[in-house]
Amino acid sequence: MAALLSLAGSPLAAAAATNASAQLAYKLIPYVHASVVPNYASSFGVTSTSGGGSGVTPATGSTAVLDGGQVDFGNVVAGYNYLYKYAAEVNVNTNDSSGFVVYAEGATNLYSPTATTFPLAQTLFWLVSASGNTPFSSASSFSATTTGTPIGANGSGGISYSGAPSAGAIVWQSATGGTVSEGYDFQLRVNDSIPTSQFNVYIVYTVIGN
Amino acid sequence: MRNAHRLGLLGIVVLGALAAFSQADALQSTKTYKVVEIQFTVTPSPAPSVGFFAKPKAPVQVATLPQADGTLLVADPFAGPAQVAYGGPLSWDVAPGVMIAQTQAQPSPVPVQFNAQADPNAAYLKIVPGTGGYSFNVPYGTTPESCVFNITTYYTTAYTLTDWGYGTASSNGNSSYPIYNYPTVSDLSWTIGSVVPLPSPTPTWTKMYNEGTPGQTVWNKAAGVSYTGCISLEIIVPTTLAPGTYTAAIQYNLQVTL
Description:
Chain A is mostly beta strands. Chain A has one helix spanning about 1-10, and strands at about 30-40, 45-50, 65, 70, 70-75, 80-95, 100-105, 110, 115-120, 125-130, 140, 150, 160, 170-175, 180-190, 195-210.
């Protein structure tokens, strides 16, 4: 009897509990979502020009509307520079913890209804929006794509790349993911040699995760 | 009648006096002005491989002589036929030829539009960039840029082309590299004419300043004379300057005789 009691009180009498660990391996599918909003702030548009004697008061064109439309510089004069505030805002949402790179370039050079073309490089520039920006603030030039193929009429559908856009088109590099935004002003430096005409171009933003 | 003669003579005397002195002090006004903006991107230089900072080259010694037991001091890791680590087609994490897709997004493009109109003063002051445009990559040190832009001027009366740092006044300049407030010596100079190849005699470089009116005289021309000059620039990048992009804005003014 004493022996039985002794056995019942020992740990061997209970059911043996087992613990184990399992290693779960999984791959998180990365995603990058992006949007670009033209004229993204209420005070968007052409704010200033340079030089004296152009005879034209700078004014934002009629196709520009808040949060949409075109970045419309309106009537500009050859030989003068212009600043367009709050031209475009890039919004990125990604779970890529390594961040992302934003590229921007023209689908084409500047084109006109009369089939006249003019180089985009050294004509249209971008700079991060800031209250102190002027037509003479340091800015980087847009260029027409050299590595991609325009989609649709004059690139209205974007640019098709076989790889990444050229490194010279980088406008923003972020080392972290999440939901972030950056706004840009545009500068137009109208060369004295530009033909008298209306000009258009599509600026294409491409966001690639790191 | 006598009074009329006297008035006529007085008028002739006044006109003669004006003619004598107006050549030196002719009234001028600014017909038009334009601003040229030039960007310099300063890129870091590689570490010097010559001169004081150069590392002395150590002689390369290779142990090839066998020791007494016949072994080499250091075994030659590249001895024998070349070998490539390869475990068969199944060992590849991603098979050759398969591209790993990077996540990317391309929102709708941003349409940009403007309507370019002719400059009403284009016949009087015209500035056209050279083939290199207005943006340059420059190293540390002194770099000449030949014929960065061409300026064409014309007017029906005698005229003067002047320049200064854009947006500045004689007493209040916007001092920043490379154009500093007068009399601080700027790091940007100009000359008229091509400098590549360097002509002989060596061109005279004129420092550019933030100084406002009256500025520097680029050239004087007589009435009805059209003139085109190419402007070359010389940029000095001091070693203390951080790499980055710097902007020089130069205002050109066409002063015409009234």
